[in-house]
Amino acid sequence: MTADTTTWSEVVEDPVFEMRMRFAQRDDGVSLVEVWADPGGGVSVAHFHPKMEERFEVLEGEVTFTADKEEVVTRPGDPPVVVKPGMHHTFRNTGSTEAHVMTEADPGDPDLQEFLTRAAALARRGAYNRHGIPKSPGHLLEAAEFAERYRESTVLTGPAFPPPGLQPLLLGPLARLHRWRVKRAAR
């Protein structure tokens, strides 16, 4: 996995998932996400991408990927882990040192960078825990708005989220309530 670009974003830190990441877009439209995860860190909230395939290559460390309930342990030199559209997945650094992972998302999606950057900002504010569970009723409304906003590119399926088929029915009203509260507070 070689990038044909050198324009990377600033590094974004997610203290809840104990990782740092940066983003780039290759000339062929593939989105790149470079991740450094501390031991035990990684994306522990199950999710899937309806239209995007992801390929994860471990450059340093040891990472365990779970895709559609199958666990795969990968290290440098192993073939990339390929997650097809619609596959529920997570990953975590199961080694004792920092893991370095290069991710390719195809087709590229600008919402992916926005989604991950906003999730990291919510984490830095203490809005949710490692399982994606909001820490207060206000954070629940904010999480509903977040999940509803990005559901075309990333569907969250972890324990804090209703089944995907019910999400439009449940998250939509909560997201509207959150937007109303934000608008009202700005007055």
Structure write-up:
- The radius of gyration is 16 Å and the shape is globular.
- α2 packs across α3 (167-186).
- The mean pLDDT is 93.
- It is 26% helix and 29% strand.
- It has three helices and eleven strands.
- With 187 residues, the chain is α+β, with helices and mostly antiparallel strands.
- Strands 1-2-3-10-5-8 form a six-stranded antiparallel beta sheet, with helices on one face. The chain has a three-stranded antiparallel beta sheet with strand order 7-6-9, with no helix packed on it.
- It folds into two domains: 12-108, Jelly Rolls; 112-186, no CATH class.
The fold-level CATH name of the largest domain is Jelly Rolls
The span between the termini is 49 Å
Order of helices and strands: EEEEEEEEEEHHEH
Sheet with the most strands, sense and barrel status: 6 strands, antiparallel
CATH homologous superfamily title of the largest domain: Jelly Rolls
* Poorly predicted tracts of residues: none
CATH C-level category of the largest domain = Mainly Beta
Number of strands: 11
